[in-house]
Design a protein that fits this description.
Blueprint (H helix, E strand, L loop, with lengths): L1 H24 L2 H9 L5 H5 L5 H15 L3 H12 L1 H9 L6 H9 L4 H12 L8 H14 L1
Helix pairs in contact: 2-5, 4-5, 6-9, 8-9
Length: about 140
Amino acid sequence: MKNIIVFTGLLIGFLGSANAAEQRKITASELFNIKCTTCHGADESLKRHATKEQFLLMIRTMQFGAKVTDQEMERIAAFLGDPSCLLFEQKCARCHDMNRSRQARLERIPHAKIKVLVEKMRKKDTSGISEQDAVAIYQYLVDFY
């Protein structure tokens, strides 16, 4: 009986920490997709431009319907309100829809390869991406995707 209780306690502890570890792996963009895009289209939502604080106010009105925790709200608002989100939308999303960005995340493209891809896009004549923009876009992708 004692062994069963100990085993059950270990199993619950293991499952709880595995669940917490899984939650840490979810990026802010994935969290946005999971919690927000069931009602709102990703491409349309990302075209809204506001500060993190303004997005927090918007998300708070939908918090309970979307079942979003306070911590999740913070992460989603930081993602949507990051100044580089607008830059990403203007320079990247005009040619690449959000499905392409999500696919890159699912493929777990290494940061070094992301840097190479951003630089490749920067060098295209029609990109309008400056060196400073490329750095900001790369950092945005690494931070949120």
